[in-house]
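The aim of this short unit is practical: by the end, you should be able to scan a pair of folded records and say something sensible about each. We start with the first protein, listed as its amino acid sequence and then its structure tokens.
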Amino acid sequence: MAFSQLISVVAIALAFSSIGCSLCSEVTGSVACTDCDPDYDFAGIRVLVKCDQVKRLSEAFTDKNGDFKTTLPSNSPTSEAATSPKCLAKLLGGPTQLYALKQNMVSEIVLSRGDKNTYTTLAPLVFSKACIGNCGSRDQHTGSSKTVEIPFPAEWGLPPSSDFFSFFPIIGIP
């Protein structure tokens, strides 16, 4: 008796898991580096996906080849993503300091050829390991991405604030 109940629970769970995947739309893309070695490890670079009229965001991390995969954000976990969304992918930062021109940090997301639930970036998100241009200036378009140490009172018992923000955001260069 217990075995038949277990089988029915597993069958129902499998049915619902396949329904959930059929509703989600997948986004794939890649990042590229202008001054990196051919064997550069792209793992851990953060990419953010934002769609028009959707409050939620979707975040992805690149693998060692610079490719990322995530789902299109939707307003609720059970709702289907828009059929022709106006979405953008943005390069956020990585485990080391990265520099990028503002026009190379964002790419439009378009429908991929073949599958109707697969989207891809229009162009790779491009960055550089070294500063491209005037990085020493203090204008509104360029900023430092060093981790900020916010001094928490010792009686709060919190770890250093650098533990909360363990990645370096991109420095946008106009």
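Turning to the second protein, read its sequence before its tokens, just as you did above.
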Amino acid sequence: MANSLRVAAAQMTSINDISANFATCSRLVKEAVNAGAKFLCLPENFSYVGAKTGESLSIAQPLDGPIMKEYCSLARESKIWLSLGGFQEKGHDDSHLCNTHVLIDDDGNIRGAYRKMHLFDVDVPGGAVYKESNFTEAGKNVVAVDTPFGCLGLTVCYDLRFPEIYQQLRFHHGAQVLLVPSAFTKVTGEAHWEILLRARAIETQCYVIAAAQAGKHNEKRESYGDTLIIDPWGTVIGQLPDRHSTGIAVADIDLSLIDSVRQKMPISQHRKPDEFWRSVTSSL
């Protein structure tokens, strides 16, 4: 494939054990390297999933703390880029953290950090009640990073339900590949996961890489899984055979395909500018 770049997306079941999760991530990195991938995306909460309320706050660290330094070393030693989202980054006070998507290059340097904007305050139908804002600070900045794998747009999990951030990433920040590390609940994943991911790919004409938490983390929490890699036409090109298993999905992405899709259906030329919609609203 011309201009193809091999990428991988991980699926795992994190627990409340930082060392055990690092061991799993290290094994997944090795699998990705052996598969020829130069870029691996790990899911939300890759380093830790608490079993009790407040546990995540107790282990939160700054981006220059020992946990992130271990992952920077892992990237450097393995010569692979890593997408790590979201990491429990220490917040501005002891009662809050940031759910932060960190991008590390193959020299072990942090190249970007996006703090999740949309917090999961939801009463899941037939499931649990979540209140992420009780302990998480919402981010305020859209983040896109130029890399050898194209311009990457960084998001986290619940952001997926808000197309505006992906429109911003595509049309105002030049994103070519959208990253959606997640820990979708079983109920919402069954209903909406693949549909939303494919919609984001189609409407932005971007690749989408969605690394997912999968299975039961503890007695109270279960994630849907189904790690996916999707092309700009909305076709699934990478997927694990078992949506509950730990492993990696691998795919070759072709940046020239993005150009081809966008040239044949030039939605960037056809879309209405923000000023147009403001004038429509004011005339109602």
